[in-house]
Amino acid sequence: MTQDATIGLIMGSQSDWDTMRHAADTLDRLGIPHEVRIVSAHRTPDRLVDYARGARDRGLRAIIAGAGGAAHLPGMVAAMTPVPVLGVPVQSAALSGLDSLLSIVQMPGGVPVATFAIGKAGAINAALFAAALLAGTDPALAGRLDQWRDAQTRDVADAPR
Ligand code: RP5
């Protein structure tokens, strides 16, 4: 979904897509238009600058940025746009994502990145958090988000099968 995107979903590498597709799926289920791009802070720095600088004028209301290892992508994007950045630490091979988590969450004061859990849970929750942000000014989306949560509650069995 790319038309009139309100959420930007970016990741540092194709290898992050297995994680970040869960954010895309969640946005799809909630009917939130979004754009998906690979933007690497170190491999495509010019693309990063163009993306971040143009984010507000394209109408993005939040950017979900997933990265692994030395995960400077969310922080660099946050430095170049006033649009809120939601960081998702991708599980890395060497340190299981602890490196990703610390390098996203430990932003110096002044340039915030809202940081979520490592991996799939973080990708889903970043999308739900972005939805909650938009729902404040979008009653129809607020209704869909309520329905999503009700369905999640109904899916919990009383006892294990
Ligand atoms: C980061 O390096 C990406 O976000 C990815 O998680 C990690 C490894 O990238 P690849 O070597 O798999 O392309 O930039």
UniProtKB/TrEMBL annotation:
Q: Which residues bind substrate?
A: 13, 16, 43
Under SUPFAM superfamilies, the record lists: N5-CAIR mutase (phosphoribosylaminoimidazole carboxylase, PurE) (SSF52255)
One of its Pfam families is AIRC
Where the record annotates domain PurE, the positions are 5-156
Q: Which Gene3D superfamilies match?
A: 3.40.50.1970
Its EC top class is isomerase
Biological role stated in the UniProt entry: Catalyzes the conversion of N5-carboxyaminoimidazole ribonucleotide (N5-CAIR) to 4-carboxy-5-aminoimidazole ribonucleotide (CAIR).
Q: Which family, according to the similarity comment? A: Belongs to the AIR carboxylase family. Class I subfamily.
Which protein is depicted?
N5-carboxyaminoimidazole ribonucleotide mutase
